[in-house]
């Protein structure tokens, strides 16, 4: 998939639909960083590392050296440290004009007195904006996002109720049990393919047959809710232990976009398709009664949720 041009995010999302789990016990879902570590491991090309050198192993290689080399990212793979200091980098946009929010620093690097901030500078991109050129200290803004992730992922009562209602919905529609059986079959087929017990053509043929039967069952929205709940729970369990890079991947897995009101110091979030139903239920059930989601901007209409609409209070 990497050789054919798929991004690490697309591959991670696909792996999470197959039922395959990472080897690490710390994480139960695939992230972009996990996929990158997977592709960088030369063990799968038939090599083993002894001390500081790689030698040919006795195990069967899953890919050729040529395929492994083609799957490596271009360049030396090193990124500057400043690219990893902000939790919402790449996801944050101005709530006034839709301009992408950048990060900037001030202070003395040698003395390690560096201050990181999100920076809204629409003038540099010739965009009119009512917020002006403003900054928001990264640690303060990121703590709001962390509070949101913890509030959603650690609310066990609400998550348990979502799963219970979804299971009941499956049974009322019919096919819920069969759907779970077929999802298990698909996961076992993928395990067999990865282990070499199935050829790729046979694996594709059988998975296609399973997918066809799944599509014939209809529905599936309830199963998607359950999958979103399980993934969110796994983020909550590991959040405090996660390094910043993995936290950013978790935020990016749940939210498509984060809009920042730089003047009011307020965040609003847009869910990814796999989480839109879950956040809609959250706003309906536990929202603090501040009205429906959605804000109209010059750059288009998006379904955005404030923290109050999701039942999250920020001190």
Q: Give the overall silhouette.
A: globular
Give a count of the beta strands, DSSP E runs of length 2 or more: 11
Structural class determined from secondary elements: alpha+beta
Number of domains: 3
Low-confidence stretches: 75-83, 290-299
Order of helices and strands, N to C? HHEEHEEEEHHHHHHEEHEEE
Distance between the termini: 45 Å
Rg, Å, rounded: 22 Å
What topology, given as strand order, has the largest sheet?
Answer: 3-7-8-11
The major β-sheet equals:
4 strands, mixed
Number of helices: 10
Strand content: 15-25%
Helix content: 40-55%
Mean pLDDT: 77
Written account of the structure:
The chain is α+β, with helices and mostly antiparallel strands and 315 residues long. The chain has three domains: 8-81, no CATH class; 82-156 and 232-310, no CATH class; 157-221. Helix content is 45%, strand content 16%. It is built from ten helices and eleven strands. The protein has helices at residues 8-18, 32-40, 65-70, 138-153, 156-173, 176-195, 200-217, 221-238, 244-254, 273-286; strands spanning 47-50, 53-56, 92-94, 102-108, 113-120, 134-137, 255-261, 266-271, 295-297, 300-302, 305-306. Strands 3-7-8-11 form a four-stranded mixed beta sheet. Strands 4-5-6 form a three-stranded antiparallel beta sheet. Helix 6 runs antiparallel to helix 7. The longest helix is centred in the middle third of the chain and has 20 residues, at 176-195. It is globular, with a radius of gyration of 22 Å. The two termini are 45 Å apart.
